[in-house]
Structures are given as C-alpha cells and as structure tokens.
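FAQ: What does the model actually see?

It sees only this:
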Amino acid sequence: MNIERQEIEKLATLARIAIDESTITEVAERLGSVLELVDQLQAADTSSLDGVSSGMQATQRLREDEVTEINQREALQATAPDTEEGLFLVPKVIE
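And it is asked to produce this:
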C-alpha cells in the first residue's frame, strides 16, 4: 500500500513527533507494510468461527470460605517494636 508524503507529515503532526526528511521514505514503507498486514487480516475468512466471548460474561467458580491457618498474631507481633490493640504501630512519615 502506498502512503503519500503529505499523509506521513499529517500523521507526524497529529502524533506530535518529528520526522526528518531523510526518514520519511522509510516511515512510509514501514506504515505501508503494516497496512498490508491489516488488509491480509481483514481478508481472512472468519465466517466459521464463533464470536469471541468476553471475560465479563464468564462466572467465577468460588470455593467455600474456610480458615486454613491458625491465628499467630501474638507470635508475629512479639518481635514488633510497637503494637497496640493487635495492630502494628509505625512512626509517622508524612507531616
């Protein structure tokens, strides 16, 4: 697919990027190859495929909520510098 120089300049302006005069030809070739690939993908026969399902339509299988660990709060807080009512106390960082 051929892309005109004016189209490259317009795209560069819209994207707010600077393209040197020496690279305009290379950019046009690369964009042309990308557009050719898109044309190939659009030409693919997808009539026999089912629609793509969204993750939003799926339901999550949930397990029962059960406790599998024992309460170790006191053991874990034993090495903490400061605790109060079962909570870790930390120094104030933001004034």
